[in-house]
Amino acid sequence: MNHSATFEVFHQAILAEQQIICTYGGYSREVCPYILGHTAGQEVVLVYQFGGTSARGLPAGGAWRCFYLEGIQDAASREGPWHGAAAHRTSQHCVEQVFIDVNKDVPNQPGRRNVC
């Protein structure tokens, strides 16, 4: 399967546990990507947003967000502290078909075996 350049940036960031800075919905975002894959045929990512801005505002400490990659601009990875819990335990409804999860204990992750 061919993935977008943005998908590749998020994939590599998850492998290296790096932060992403990007623009989504016209707002500057600072996020840690957790789960990358597809929902209804579209590329999606579950992130923990810890900095930047948002239409709904950003609670102190950050918030979980689901982004459609087609709406992301200027994504770049960077070094920095990891926000959220890498071994997340709650179920999510953002990504239907998981390609890669930052939690290495999650089984059946094609993104840990394949390069985009």
Report on this structure:
With 116 residues, this protein is mainly beta. The chain has one domain (5-113). The chain has 2 helices and 6 strands; from the N terminus they run H-E-E-E-E-E-E-H. The chain has helices at 5-16, 110-113, and strands at residues 19-24, 27-39, 42-52, 63-68, 72-78, 97-101. Strands 1, 2, 3, 4, 5 and 6 form a 6-stranded antiparallel beta sheet that branches. The longest helix is centred in the first third of the chain and has 12 residues, at 5-16. The radius of gyration is 13 Å and the shape is globular.
Please give the alpha-carbon distance between the first and last residues.
8 Å
Beta-strand segment tally: 6
Give the overall shape: globular
Order of helices and strands: HEEEEEEH
Strand content: 35-45%
Low-pLDDT runs: none
Structural class by sheet pairing and helices: mainly beta
Radius of gyration: 13 Å
Rounded mean pLDDT score: 91
Q: Helix tally?
A: 2
The proportion of residues forming helix, as a percent range, comes to: 10-25%
Main β-sheet, in a few words?
Answer: 6 strands, antiparallel
**Number of structural units classed as domains:** 1
Short summary:
With 116 residues, the protein is mainly β. The chain has helices at residues 5-16, 110-113; strands at residues 19-24, 27-39, 42-52, 63-68, 72-78, 97-101.
